[in-house]
Amino acid sequence: MSDFMVSVVMPALNEEQNLDGAVRNVLAAFEKFAVAGELLIVNDGSSDGTGRIADEFAAAYPAVSVIHHALPEGIGASFWDGVKKCSGEIVVMLPGDGENDAAEILRYLPLLEQVDIVVPFVFNREVRSFGRRLLSILYREIIKASFGLSLNYMNGTVMYRKAVFSGIELKNGGFFYQTELLIKTIRRGHLYAEVPYALSRRGSGDSSATTLRSLVRVARGYVSTFMEVHAGHAGNGTPADATVSAVRLAALKEAGRRG
Fold first, then answer.
1. Which is nearest to 247 in space by CA: 194, 191, 193, 195?
2. CA-CA distance, 222 to 233, in Å (whole number)?
C-alpha cells in the first residue's frame, strides 16, 4: 500500500477487558494493508491486568513493545512517550479501548504522500450520546474562535508525519493534547487532509474523556495553549524540514523565482 514505516501508539489505562481485541485489530490492519508497522502499548499506570496482557503480546509478537508508567500520566503524556521512542515515519494514536478500527485510519496512508497530517472526523455520530455530540460541537466552535482552526473533529486518531513534531514541545498530558498538537502543527503551515472515519462502540467499561477531572484538565490545557499561542511562542508559520509542506513550499518559491 505504501512504503511508510508506521508507529501506532496505544495508551491503555485499565483496559484489561478491551486490550486484547484492540491489539489484534491493529496487527490485522498491518497485515491487511501490507504495512511495515510497530505497535507501542503504553500501560498508563493500570491497576488491573492491562500491563500483563501488554507484556504477553510483546513476548509473542516482535512488532509489539510496551512502555510502563508507574502511575497514570494521561493519554497525551502516554502518546508523547510513544512518539519519543517510536521509529516510524508516520505515527498515530489508537487507544486500547477498542472503539477504533485501525483499518479505518490506515486506509488513508497514501494521502501522506501529499500532506503531513490526516485528521479524521466521525461520520457515524449516532454511536455517541447526544450529550457527547453537543459537547463536541461546543468544543469545536470554541477552538475555531480562539485559534482560527476550523476542523470537524480534533480528538480522533490523527496520523502525522513524525517530522512535523520537530521543535514542538507538548505541554498537555491529558485529552487536550491532540488539539494542542493540531494547533501548533497547522499554524506552522503544515498541510493536512480531513477524512471520514467510522467509530465503533467501546467494548467494555466507561470512557474517562468526559469525567469532571478530565474536563478540568482540558480547560487548563486550553488556557495554557491560548496563552502560549497568542503570546507568540507557538506557530511561526514555517513547516518543519523533511515534510511534504516544506518541500512544496520550497518548490513554489523556486517556481516564483524562475517566473
1. 191
2. 15
Residue 17, classed as helix, strand or coil, is coil
Evaluate whether 138 touches 31 at the Cβ level (below 8 Å): no
Q: Check the CA dihedral 57-58-62-66 and report its sign.
A: positive
| Chain segment 106-124, per-residue pLDDT in tens | 999 999 999 999 999 988 7
Domains contained in the chain, CATH given: 5-258 (3.90.550.10)
- Give the C-alpha separation, 129 to 116, whole Å: 32
Q: What is the pTM for the complete model shown? A: 0.89
HEC string of 7-49 equals EEEEEECCCCCCHHHHHHHHHHHHHHCCCEEEEEEEEECCCCC
Would you call 246 helix, strand, or coil by DSSP?
Answer: helix
**Helix axes 177-187 and 212-230, enclosed angle (nearest 10):** 20
How far apart CA 172 and CA 76 sit, in angstroms, is: 6
Pair 102, 77: CB distance under 8 Å: no
